Structures are given as structure tokens and as C-alpha cells.
Amino acid sequence: MADDKLTLRMSQAGMRFIAQMTIYNSGDFERLRKYISESYHSDLLAEQSIEDRLTEFRELYSEEGRLKVVRVVGTSKHHVIVLVDAEATGTYWLNDLQVEEDYPHRIIKYSVSPVE
Known about the structure:
- This protein is α+β, with helices and mostly antiparallel strands.
- It contains five helices and four strands.
- It has a single domain, classed as Nuclear Transport Factor 2, Chain: A (Roll), CATH 3.10.450.
- Strands 1-2-3-4 form a four-stranded antiparallel sheet.
């Protein structure tokens, strides 16, 4: 796990993932709203609004609780795939996050799906 955290810290996408999950796990959804508005690319927000994304995060938190990194499945400078474990249910979730190559490395893709 320590190696996975180091791996995430070496990636722009990994740093975005760490920031987002830290805020999510705190349960501070106003702060998460601000993070989404500042960190997601406008094209991604046009596909799904901040409010819709926040609703999904709230529902996930309500049903699954905090999420803990189990393993970094794949990583590059601008893309990470991370397996997490839900505190409340033990369900595994696969997170796929990609950022733009240029600063400020806004999130251009994010999905989370349960592992069957």
C-alpha cells in the first residue's frame, strides 16, 4: 500500500486522485463541490454537471462509506486506474481517472464502477 501511495504521488493523475479521495473521505461535500468545479475540465462538466457528480459522490458515501486504496492497477503520468475498498460494505470499486497533459492538469475523465 505504501508503494501504491508513492506511485500515485509520482503521477499528475495520481495527485488529483489522492486529493479527490481525501476530500470525499472527509465527508465535506461543499469542499468536494469546490474541488470538482476547479479541477474538472469544462468539457467533462458539460457532460455531467457538478450537482449530478456531487449527488453520485453523496450516494456512494452514504451507501459505501469511506474508500481505501487497495491497489494501483495501472498508472502513467496522466492516467491512473485504482482499486479501492468500501469501508461499510467491503465492495471493491475501480476508479479510472485521466488528466489533461498541460498544466493545471484538469480531470478529463473520471469513472468509478463496482467490481463484480
